[in-house]
Structures are given as C-alpha cells and as structure tokens.
C-alpha cells in the first residue's frame, strides 16, 4: 500500500532532510511540501492525504492552528516534527502520538512510520477528538510557562567537550544542520540548526539578523542600512555581518522592547 505523504515545515533544510530519509521508504510517496501553515491547510482541504509530517513551531500559522483549522475529523494520520525536547516529548508519549525531534534521525523515523502503519492497519490511526484536544492543551500549557534560557552550551573542543558561557558567544553562523559559534577568535560546532538555536537563546541578548547569522546584542558597535532591503552590523572587534530586512526589523523590535 502506497501512502500519500505531505511534508509541512518552514525550514527548507528540514524538508530536504526528511525527503531524503523518506526516499528509502518506497511505500511512501511525497505528494506535496508546504513551507507554512496556510499552504498546508489549503492542500489538506483539497486533496486526499494518507500521512502528514507536521512541524509544530512555524511562524504565523503554527502546527496547532493547522490541526484546528483543518478539523479533527479531516486530519490524516500525523507524525509531529518538533524542536521541543523534554516537556513536549512527554506530552506526546502520554497521549500515544508519534513524533520526531529535529534533526530527524533515520532510526527514529523508521519507528514512527512503523507505529503509524500499525494504526492504519488496525484502523485506529486517527486520534479521537478528546485525545488530540488533550495533546494541544498540554503543549500550549508547556509553551505558555515562563521560558528559561541556557547560560552555557555544551560544545566540542577538539577531542573534549566544554561548557561555553553564552555571554562569550560573539555571533553564530549557520552551517547546514549545525551552528558555528564564534567566541574570542575561536569556532565551536554545535549539532543544532540556527533556527532551533535562535528559539533557545534569550531574545534580549541574541537576535537573528540574517537567515545565516545570530548576533550578540551586547557586542554590536554600529548598524548600517544599505538601500531599502539589506544592511550590516559591525561588532566591537570590527567584524562586519550582513543584515536582512527581517533582521533589521527584529533589531528594531528588540530596541523598543528594552526601552
């Protein structure tokens, strides 16, 4: 039985990785990729889908909103994809929902697909309305709690690992599924996408100024605007980093919030 699958994720690299991993599952046919919640809702309301890979955290219309707007009775068997770790994973487990955490691993994908296939075979793939409502409420309660931010990050330093204080990070550079942390002339690699890392760091100290870079606000010396779209920031050590229009907007919003 071939399963018609839809991938929903605002991160292109995340969709590409999932597509690559799914290419080894010949019984799954990817019929659509949606880069936001609006596209997902439109597709799900217009075409039959057997399996949905749904990112939980997306700007604008979230995975929660997709579920609610499509309607529980019309939702296909769903594997959630999430950057949440402890609390969200426990919430999924308690309600017997399949999930994947980023970056997606082939072994974990195999297990999730196996669970969904068992449910489809048993004709129990769709959750009851009560079950799904409980999941959404639990996840919303988790995300509504006071958020704490890490003061140190565990990074590789040659053959050993060290705890790098976040205040020592000058800027962060995207490196596919990794992030490169720049600190005092050194570079440390962290197995985490720049989007996931941006969501974990304190927004009052770190701002994503470009799709490929995050900057420590305390180390910005100057900000330049170049035309209507792009610009750059200059750090205290003289390094110049590109800044997108969206990045400038985030800097502006941070400035307003701190006043």
Automatic annotation (TrEMBL):
Keyword entries, A-Z: Phosphoprotein
Gene3D superfamilies listed in its UniProt record: 3.40.50.2300, LytTr DNA-binding domain
Record keyword Phosphoprotein present: yes
Domain of life: Bacteria
Domain Response regulatory: 4-117
GO molecular function, one term: DNA binding
Sequence positions bearing 4-aspartylphosphate: 55
Residue ranges constituting the HTH LytTR-type domain according to the UniProt record: 153-257
Keyword check for Plastid: no
InterPro entries: CheY-like_superfamily (IPR011006), LytR-like (IPR046947), LytTR_DNA-bd_dom (IPR007492), Sig_transdc_resp-reg_receiver (IPR001789)
PANTHER family, A to Z: STAGE 0 SPORULATION PROTEIN A HOMOLOG (PTHR37299:SF1), TRANSCRIPTIONAL REGULATOR-RELATED (PTHR37299)
Annotated protein name in UniProt: Two component transcriptional regulator, LytTR family
Species this chain originates from: Terriglobus saanensis (strain ATCC BAA-1853 / DSM 23119 / SP1PR4)
